[in-house]
């Protein structure tokens, strides 16, 4: 087996500001192009934030490549990419479940947000979400919320790769009391964070029904001017379809297309209520869709036409949405739910294959966020990798990688490497004090519970 | 807070053949009747296989009640009840995924079963399934397969409570080469196991389309004569509905009703293709339904009318089905999938509440299997309990027990008590050597893979 080795001739650009080196040995490695989806007995050398070399253990020469991780009995795969989250909303996990959308929003989530969303809350609750995501194998997240400076700081300190999108909405919002300043606030945020190591700043226009046409166009112009991703909730509920149809005589997707907002840096989140024409518009414009099946199921929003989007060539990612409507951030569970939901929706067990969902949660999800060099275990790629322990009853036997979707869960992830740095080792997070974060959030939750109605 | 204490005056019948005593302290305990679903700071005393006493820690007096477990930061809840499994099929976990039903069965599962299902295979693969179930918080399983003596022995050695149902089918089957002997084989099996401590023997008639009317009636008569549960796959696919309609001019449920097979000891598994009349027949007869949402989704069988069954008063349990069509046995994931699926199916977020699903997976599931005294954390009940670690990011905050459905997973279970015996402690199974079982099954899986087509 050939080795693509950069280890001897380290390209300088890989090492700017970084001196971490790691070598993983005795690993199964994820390999989408093989029948089983993995290769046995490999080593991987990591330095400067990237995969420097990999190959069969038969060709492994120890050398001085830093810390050694023995992955015997485990599989090394690309870290998972969460295409949509509102990380700080972890504070509201399970605050109000099993309710119709409007009472849920109006009697629980909106009042709780109005009272409790503060910079400090966003910082600590985003860190809690980062802990949960790292512990369940997510290495990159697209987050969408307010007080985005605090979110970006939390991800940076956690050592997670993040696209931190600052919210735009035509109402008073956390940190942006005057809606006339909504786009300007995001502009300042972007300019503070452009060029950061782990964080990509971005724009999050809340939805076609909470932003005016003018706001949507200005927000997209800002995103274009800085060449950053533009996120928007799109066609989540049937009610939204009705609202847009009333004001624009068309679907939410057609409305965005008419405004000129759809292009290859636009990420439409949810996309539940899309018809064939909408799917064509998305495919032609190059806009991507991030589906959030668990949130759509829990809120009974509907089932997105994921198989149809895939057939039409629309770029697809997978997201958890925030904890308030999921109620967790485990992408292993999300992959399972996604694959199974779309089989039963179409009454076709071949409809959405495990491999399709793995692609959405890794390389395709990374690319639609703008990371062209992530999501594949190959030399030169970003070293965002997770080590999954297969030596467990529920992963025995392991005929192939389908069981990462249908049988694994987040707790099977032993170690996590992000940007070449060991962020979690044997389920211990190395970058920050998780117990402190849980204590801080639990204290805030006691205040929430005291204030919440009906308890 | 009152204490219902039996600890001082141990009733003799609780102690026949048992001398294990355990006391859990500092626990949150599951309490379905409270707003949050749990109570803080409780102790539980266990002896003779039952809960002897429980109460607030303020009223706790140490005494000599055996081994002490400190559950600070954790929740004690009833062990989960898996209403349908084919445990030995764990050998085929992920052997063939994402295939239409007929190629899946005919080109993969049936040939693999014909070649590899042997008494030794059933013994080891059932033990593997027992390990997976214990590790994910299941304390009782209804298993349905062949070579049921080996399955029953495996569950006994694992220390799991099991209803072991021996298969009846009008074809040559593992251990029953002559279909004329199918009911007699089950009769002998039942008579060997009736009265066993942990295992309840039972009858599993495969389906209305693989058993003749005569076989179904004889199998049910056998179950009645021994007063044991009778299981049958019912209305799993639309194709089955067509087959039964062709031969009986009615639905599968109406067919069973006409044969006199439906009563309160009959457990119908799947129940996907049921109409309003079928649901009435089930409700009136007292027959129970075990739904297996993940399997029904993965094989694209359809979505069972679970909310309608619940409204009609049909007793409902939750099952994983076998690993070949799931591909795991984690009932925490199954609860999540079940609640979310039925919300989106009915476009009503209040359709199937977390509490409904918790009920199905605990007390309701236990009762429909014949265990009237299980599934509730209360004095006098069977001590089938699990300790769930809440001190984790994905379970923070913990406003209420809904998050056991929407955020927890099997790996959160720290310790498991079955029949008063500590079977798993801090994720280590105490009753058997799990590594040996994984090795044995992995060796069999290598043979399966060599023999399987298309690899």
Instruction: Find the CATH superfamily of the largest domain in chain A.
Output: Metal-dependent hydrolases
Shape of chain A: globular
Average pLDDT for all residues of chain A: 94
Radius of gyration of chain A: 21 Å
| Level-2 CATH architecture of the largest domain in chain A | Alpha-Beta Barrel
Report how far the terminal alpha carbons of chain A are from each other. 62 Å
Strand-residue fraction of chain A?
15-25%
Summarize the main sheet of chain A: 10 strands, mixed
How much helicity do the residues of chain A have?
25-40%
Protein chain pair with the most extensive contact, residues per chain: A-B, 77 and 77 residues
Low-confidence stretches of chain A: 1-18
Tell me the number of helical segments of chain A per DSSP (H or I, 4 or more residues long). 15
Oligomer: homodimer
CATH classification, class level of the largest domain in chain A: Alpha Beta
- Strand tally of chain A is 18
Provide the structure class of chain A: alpha/beta
Word description of this protein:
Two copies of one chain form a homodimer. The first copy, chain A, has 455 residues and is of the alpha/beta class. The first copy, chain A, is 36% helix and 22% strand. Chain A has two domains: 22-78 and 374-429, Urease, subunit C, domain 1 (Roll); 80-368, Metal-dependent hydrolases (TIM Barrel, Alpha-Beta Barrel), CATH 3.20.20. The first copy, chain A, is built from 15 helices and 18 strands. In chain A, the strands form two sheets. In chain A, strands 1, 2, 3, 4, 5, 6, 15, 16, 17 and 18 form a ten-stranded mixed beta sheet that branches. An eight-stranded parallel beta sheet of chain A has the order 7-8-9-10-11-12-13-14. The longest helix of chain A is centred in the last third of the chain and has 18 residues, at 434-451. At the A-B interface, helix 2, helix 9, helix 11, helix 14 and helix 15 of A face helix 2, helix 9, helix 11, helix 14 and helix 15 of B.
């Amino acid at each position: 087996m050939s080795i693509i080795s950069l280890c001897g001739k380290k390209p300088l650009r890989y090492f700017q500001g970084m001196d971490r080196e790691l070598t993983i040995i005795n690993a199964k490695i994820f390999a989408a192009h093989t029948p089983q989806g993995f290769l046995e007995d490999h080593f991987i050398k990591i330095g400067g934030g990237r995969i420097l070399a990999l190959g069969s253990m038969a060709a492994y020469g120890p050398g001085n490549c830093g810390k050694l991780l023995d992955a015997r009995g485990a599989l090394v795969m690309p870290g998972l990419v969460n295409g949509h989250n509102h990380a700080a909303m972890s504070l509201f996990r399970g605050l109000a479940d099993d309710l119709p959308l409007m009472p849920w929003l109006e009697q629980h989530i909106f009042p709780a947000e109005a009272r409790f969303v503060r910079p400090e809350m966003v910082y600590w609750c985003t860190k809690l979400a980062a802990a949960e995501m790292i512990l369940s194998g997510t290495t990159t997240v697209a987050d969408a919320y307010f007080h985005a400076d605090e979110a970006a700081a939390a991800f940076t300190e956690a050592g997670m790769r993040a696209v931190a999108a600052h919210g735009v909405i035509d109402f008073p919002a956390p940190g942006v009391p005057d809606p006339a300043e909504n786009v300007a606030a995001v502009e300042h945020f972007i300019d503070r964070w452009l060029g950061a190591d782990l964080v990509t700043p971005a724009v999050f226009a809340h939805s076609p029904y909470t932003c005016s046409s003018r706001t949507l166009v200005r927000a997209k112009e800002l995103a274009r001017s800085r060449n950053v991703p533009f996120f928007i909730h799109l066609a989540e509920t049937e009610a939204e379809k009705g609202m847009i149809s009333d004001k624009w005589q068309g679907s939410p997707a057609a409305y965005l297309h008419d405004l000129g907002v759809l292009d290859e840096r636009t990420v439409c989140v949810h996309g539940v209520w899309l018809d064939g024409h909408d799917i064509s518009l998305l495919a032609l414009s190059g806009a991507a869709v991030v589906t959030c099946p668990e949130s759509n199921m829990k809120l009974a929003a509907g089932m997105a036409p994921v198989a149809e989007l895939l057939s039409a060539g629309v770029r697809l990612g997978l997201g958890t949405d925030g904890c308030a409507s999921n109620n967790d951030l485990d992408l292993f569970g999300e992959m399972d739910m996604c694959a199974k939901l779309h089989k039963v929706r179409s009454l076709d067990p071949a409809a959405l294959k495990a491999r399709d969902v793995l692609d959405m949660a890794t390389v395709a999800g990374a690319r639609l966020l703008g990371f062209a060099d992530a999501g594949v275990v190959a030399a030169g790629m970003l070293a965002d990798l997770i080590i999954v322990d297969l030596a467990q009853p529920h992963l025995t036997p392991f005929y192939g990688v389908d069981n990462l979707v249908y049988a694994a869960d987040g707790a099977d992830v032993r170690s996590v490497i992000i940007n070449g740095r060991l962020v979690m080792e044997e389920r211990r997070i190395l970058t920050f004090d998780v117990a402190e974060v849980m204590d801080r959030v639990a204290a805030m939750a006691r205040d929430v519970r005291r204030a919440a109605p009906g308890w």
